[in-house]
């Protein structure tokens, strides 16, 4: 007897519907799975056999052939276990309705089986649920731990099950499962990160970070140890705008596929902050592996990637950032195919001015030789530095700045209001505009050449100022465009429709380290 049920697989961050066909024939007993399965799926034969026996269904002594269609796409992972077992039980006649086979054409089954028949959570359920809904499926059966994630998708009923028995009882109408409804707690919407009110002084660095957040610009913080570089960087998510629903869906997909989405979270609503150690490898940063997985640049998608002690990262790691910073996506090519992951993030870097950390310090003597300082700074290549919009010095603070309590520091909530206001102006300006890869423009940093020509028009005074800066600092064409993007953001923060010399001058100052580095 032939049966057909549906499951879903993952390709990149998107899901695709998989038809699980099972044919049982009275021949020599065997069990085969075809359709480009990986090792995890091939091993499903033993999990399915034990789960069926331990759930009280027995196991048919028949020739069993399971096909995962489409057969030309590589299938990976253990998420097909449940669909394979349900298809087998129906094909062998173990479960059936009063008048014949069950109608499972509107169902999708996702989950890993334990040997006892219990369901275990799998990765990428959100992407699979979206693909099932788009394919016209109305009922989705998932493990309990994945139910909150799947319930984000409207238009499909989610059933959370603990075991195969729960699902078969529901299908046979012996004991039905209620559709899972998840109501998020308001606390999930709160931005849970440190506040800028804790940072004493450093007004210029705070201003630079505010500009970076308002326009989505990359920023490099340079200063001696203990000046607050890391402290400032860790507070950047507290002033970034709230995520749109589309951004939340995309970010949740990446985290779900990577297996780091908490079981009590249905949708990521706060912008991610990733801070990998400097001993990481290039594949860990951009993604890869035998089975390609997202790297840190993709896990930071729609959020912040913070690289502390920037020169300590190996050259292969830092240079691997160049293409993702330009494209907003990373493509991983393997023999089995190409996978594309999104990586539109705000890069925040911190570094010391030299190896000992005290070059230029007013009171602490630097012990580095001139050649060592140049060698240390040369670890950051010119092409990479050219892609960092803001390069700002974070000087050491005086005792009075640290001890003064006369005037409280501005909290993140106030800075965020200005950032939101500037972002709103930019989004109104770019309404209907698209990048070359077809994605919507949400901030000034995403402008391309044609947008810069249209929205960053300079008057004569600004042109003369820009010309002097271009020739004096030896800027590249990319550096020229990034200054214009910065000036546009500064004008938005000031509520100005056009870029003024004051805005352009501040933007140039924020990139003045090009000449020194």
Topology record:
Elements: E1 2-11, E2 14-25, E3 30-34, H1 39-42, H2 44-54, E4 63-69, H3 81-91, E5 107-109, E6 112-113, E7 119-120, H4 125-134, E8 139-143, H5 147-150, E9 157-161, H6 164-171, H7 203-215, E10 219-222, H8 229-233, H9 245-258, E11 273-274, H10 282-286, E12 287-288, E13 293-294, H11 296-299, E14 304-307, H12 315-319, H13 322-327, E15 329-334, E16 337-342, E17 346-351, H14 370-377, H15 382-386, E18 390-393, H16 399-403, H17 412-429, H18 449-455, H19 460-473, H20 477-493, H21 501-509
Parallel strand pairs: 3-4, 5-8, 8-9, 10-17, 10-18, 11-14, 14-17
Antiparallel strand pairs: 1-2, 2-4, 6-7, 12-13, 15-16
Question: Any overview of this molecule?
Answer:
With 517 residues, the protein is of the alpha/beta class. The protein folds into 3 domains: 2-171, 2-Layer Sandwich (Ribosomal Protein S5, domain 2), CATH 3.30.230; 189-423, Rossmann fold, CATH 3.40.50.300; 447-517, no CATH class. Helix content is 35%, strand content 17%. The chain is built from 21 helices and 18 strands. It has a 5-stranded parallel β-sheet with strand order 11-14-17-10-18. A 4-stranded mixed β-sheet has the order 1-2-4-3. It has a 3-stranded parallel β-sheet with strand order 5-8-9, sandwiched between helices. Strand 1 and strand 2 (14-25) form a beta hairpin. It is elongated and about 85 Å long. The N and C termini lie far apart (72 Å). The mean pLDDT is 91.
């Amino acid at each position: 007897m032939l049966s057909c049920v549906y499951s879903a697989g993952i390709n990149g961050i998107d899901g695709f519907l998989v038809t699980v066909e099972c044919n049982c024939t009275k021949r020599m007993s065997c069990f085969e799975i075809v359709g480009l399965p990986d090792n995890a799926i091939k091993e499903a034969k033993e999990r399915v056999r034990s789960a069926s026996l331990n759930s009280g269904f027995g196991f048919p002594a028949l020739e069993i052939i399971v096909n995962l269609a489409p057969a030309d796409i590589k299938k990976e992972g253990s998420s097909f276990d449940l669909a394979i077992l349900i298809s087998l039980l129906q094909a062998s006649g173990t479960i059936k309705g009063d008048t014949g086979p069950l109608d499972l054409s509107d169902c999708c089954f996702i989950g890993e089986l334990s040997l006892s028949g219990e369901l275990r959570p799998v990765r990428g359920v959100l992407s699979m649920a979206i693909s099932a809904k788009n394919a016209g499926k109305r009922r989705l059966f998932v493990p309990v731990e994945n139910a909150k994630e799947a319930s984000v998708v409207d238009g499909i009923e989610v059933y959370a099950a603990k075991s195969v028995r729960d699902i078969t009882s529901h299908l046979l109408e012996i004991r039905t499962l209620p559709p899972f409804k998840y109501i998020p707690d308001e606390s999930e919407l709160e931005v849970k990160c440190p506040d800028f009110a804790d940072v004493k002084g450093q007004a210029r660095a705070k201003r630079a970070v505010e500009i970076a957040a308002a326009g989505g610009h990359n920023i490099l913080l340079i200063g001696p140890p203990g000046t607050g570089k890391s402290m400032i960087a860790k507070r950047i998510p507290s002033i970034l705008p709230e995520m749109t629903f589309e951004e939340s869906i995309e970010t949740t997909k990446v985290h779900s596929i990577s297996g780091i989405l908490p079981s009590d979270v249905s949708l990521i609503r706060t912008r991610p902050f990733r801070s990998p150690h400097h001993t990481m490898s290039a594949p860990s940063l951009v993604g890869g592996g035998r089975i390609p997985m997202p790297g840190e640049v993709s896990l930071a998608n729609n959020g912040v990637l913070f690289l502390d002690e920037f020169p300590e990262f190996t050259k292969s790691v830092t240079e691997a950032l160049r293409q993702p910073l330009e494209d907003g996506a990373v493509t991983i090519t393997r023999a089995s195919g190409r996978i594309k992951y999104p990586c539109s993030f705000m890069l925040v870097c911190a570094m010391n001015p030299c190896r000992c950390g005290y070059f230029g310090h007013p009171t602490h003597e630097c012990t580095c030789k001139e050649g060592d300082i140049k060698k240390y700074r040369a670890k950051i290549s010119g092409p990479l530095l050219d892609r960092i919009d803001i390069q700002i010095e974070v000087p050491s603070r005086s005792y009075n700045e640290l001890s003064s309590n006369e005037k409280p520091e501005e909290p993140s909530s106030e800075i965020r209001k200005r950032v939101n206001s500037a972002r709103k102006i930019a989004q109104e300006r770019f309404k209907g505009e698209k990048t070359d890869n077809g994605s919507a423009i949400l901030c000034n940093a995403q402008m391309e050449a044609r947008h810069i020509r249209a929205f960053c028009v300079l008057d004569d005074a600004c042109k003369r100022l820009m010309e002097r800066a271009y020739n004096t600092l030896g800027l590249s064409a990319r550096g020229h465009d990034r200054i214009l993007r910065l000036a546009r953001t500064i004008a938005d923060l000031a509520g100005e429709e056009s870029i003024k010399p004051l805005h352009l001058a501040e933007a140039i100052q924020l990139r003045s380290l090009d000449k020194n580095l």
